[in-house]
Design goal:
three-stranded antiparallel sheet, 41% helix, elongated
Length: 199
Amino acid sequence: MKQNVKLLFDRRNTVKKTGKGTIEILVYLSREERKWEAVGTADEQSWEVMANDRRILTKANVIAFDAWLRSQNNKTDYTINGYHKKVRKYTKILWRLEMISSDPYEYVKFPKGKNKERVPLIEPELVKIRQAECSGRIERARDLFIFMAYTGLAYCDMSVFNFNTMTEEHTDYTYIDGSRLKTGSNFFTPILPPAEVIE
């Protein structure tokens, strides 16, 4: 198979069940270097409109892709920018390999947007979660969530947490002394009572 880029729809046949299918770009550089990248979802009718021009990596199609993402009215600028970043990663590679004559993203600019401010859970909501009756895997997931909520640890940091090597005893609390996996920045945080009871 020679190097190419294809736009595909509903590779996993979900339209019949859900009414929507995933739109994916297949970038094939070699047997070892190939990637399916999901760039959105659509119903069959929307796909037919989009699929008329198969020369997908053009300035006009990048603008049409952006307009289509925005027309759904269910994505923020920040989310849409994430889709564009996925596609642009490949347009740069393809342009460097001379598989496309130019990188279409060099000629367009889209709003980046801002990440939505997260609204933290308040104490009564956390109490409801702690008191919820559940068992098995759901109970374990709930306990881990509570531990993260009362320590401030991200999931990736909590998954490598070791009580024996990462804690220090002080008069008022036990503290976690570690560094973030993602950023490497240090943190020193107390384990509050609701998190302490979790094994």
